[in-house]
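Here is an idea for our session: we take a single protein and study its fold together. To get us started, please write out a protein record for me. Start from the sequence, derive the backbone structure tokens from it, and show both lines together. Go ahead whenever you are ready, and we will take it from there:
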Amino acid sequence: MGLISDPSKRKKLIDFLEKSKNFLSIFGYTGGIVWLFLLASSEFNSRAYVSENALLPGLVETSYSEDSVAFKLYGELKKICTKDIYRQRDWISQNLISAGLEVYHQNFSCGDKGVGGQNIYGILRSPRSSGVESLVLNVPQKYGCDSNGGLAMMLSIVRHFMFQNFWAKDIVFLITEHDSCGVEAWLGSYHGEPLKGVVASDLTGHAGKIQAALVIDFNHESFRGVDVQFEGINGLLPNLDLLHVVFHVARMEGVLAKLNNQDSYYGFADQFEDYKRCITSLCKMILRQATGFPSGVHGHYLKYRIEAVTLKESTTGERSNEARFGQVGKIIEGIFRSFNNLQEHFHQSFFMYLLPASDRYISIALYMPVLGGILLGPLLQAVSLWMQTIGMDIETDATDRKMLSAETIWHTLVLLLMSHSVGTILYFALPFAISSGSFKIGTSVEIAIGSWLVAVTLGKGSKISYLVYNLVCTWSFGLFGPVFVGGLCFCFLISAGGNPKTCFINVLSKFGVMKGKFVVVDWLSFPRYFC
């Protein structure tokens, strides 16, 4: 505290920050980006392992042999999938009942227009316990023939599980409609928490407390590997043990498990190809989390602290790596056999991590320095401005108030409008770009770094140069990392100088701070981050 309260020492600190903040800002940002790229290398991340010993993935020998039944059901679905939805519902219900399950229905509607649907679920009661815990196998039903593979797979799994007497948990086989709307309606009713905008009937059948869920989204009877989707709402992630179980069981069955619909594992002959795939997976995961949107309907389970992932058929890869019903059925059986061994909730492994590959992981302790380096500039600029503010004499207060003139405020509003506009565009554009596959990681990184270098060059100059500088800085940061980081950095990271008065007004406008007093601020660019 003496460093701040002593005027002479405070003056030295202010002078040091003024001289060094630009260099330290550039060094911190550049160091953070370099560290992020290093984390994709196997020398800087860790090999995957299962922390919860009770899971024992791959220990048991799977016995699924109902692939012929799955192909038969798939053929029947192809005949009726073009018919009305009511015929499909009756067909699904009849198959669940004939398999020996307790079958229930739930009607629901979503949105102002009242788009309605029906969830169908069957419960396999545990023969070895009182049913206080349960697991869920979920298939999101789509109109038309886009979910035939998943439905056929589930119904064949039901018939196989019915003849096994070692299940220690109830198993719920759930078919939901309207994607996330149906899942939200069922989960809200199951936990007695009605959701805004969703009207759903009460559930007439319940199982135990749900420990884990697996969502399967297959369109066809064969596909080129399995894409594992795990990002949830607002960046929530399932426990890392769950993912390791899925990847381990898939490797045991000889099926290629992918991240972000691309081959992502170490072991290629070309080390550069290894690194290229891993940095692409890493950046895609960061960008998908930055959008705040889940990569599949499993994301709604994570809100209830139910660990869940989605297995989706992969559309890329070689035909020689095609997986069929027999292999996928063994994967699902192996995953549920591991879930069946759980004696408590997932808790042993990480909930915050990054995945460069299916057999590697980056813990929060390793990737936090990246965020620290990127935010070092905003921190130094904020401290420097604050130190300058508290060091002002009372006699100069009247002069300082002139900073709030109409011209300066208008200039600040222009900067804020530019920042929020870019942030809003990125916020809504990234989910569609990533989901459609049109977003190229390599190109975006080149644009981000190039734009940042241009911004540094434009930092020293007129007001127009400073406006362009702020805009380009915001765009480059937003492209490279989470959108909210870009919105923060534009105010503070003036790496090569700029207008300090305008920057000071930006600080006040962005954070609502005026000499220690806090006011309410409308965060236009970051609505989902604060939901």
Notes: The first strand starts at residue 46 and ends at 47. The chain has two domains: 2-42+367-518, 53-358. The chain has 18 helices and 16 strands. Residues 392-396, 437-531 have pLDDT under 50 and may be disordered.
